[in-house]
Write a structure and sequence with these properties.
single chain; mainly alpha; 2 helices; rod-shaped; protein transport; Tom22; mitochondrion outer membrane; Tom22_pln
Length: 105
């Protein structure tokens, strides 16, 4: 035992002959090449592609809606709030001065 030289590394089992015929291929390889599996794989790839496109389009639409809201709606809300505060201030001043208050138009 001590007289045999040691070789490093891992020894792998010998490979069988090349896959020359279909009978020598393994069951998994035959299943992998079956038309049902190939069609399922293609359907999964198509579904992933459509999902990716849909998410990208949804993101773009959300960006457009968000920026439009910030540019158009937020200033309108701020202006309406200012108008309401001004009306309340006018009503408060009118009640302090004793003039008859008029309902807001």
């Amino acid at each position: 035992m001590a007289s045999q030289p040691r070789r490093g590394g891992v020894s792998l089992p010998e490979r069988r002959g090349a896959k020359s015929s279909e009978s020598s291929s393994s069951v998994i390889a035959r299943l992998r090449e079956s038309p049902i599996v190939l069609r399922g794989r293609q359907a999964a790839c198509d579904a992933a592609f459509v999902t990716k496109k849909l998410l990208k389009s949804t993101g773009k639409a959300a960006w457009i809606a968000g920026t439009t809201f910030l540019v158009l709606v937020v200033p309108l809300i701020i202006e309406m709030d200012r108008e309401q505060q001004l009306n309340e201030l006018e009503l408060q001043q009118a009640s302090l001065l004793g003039t008859p208050s008029q309902p807001p138009k």
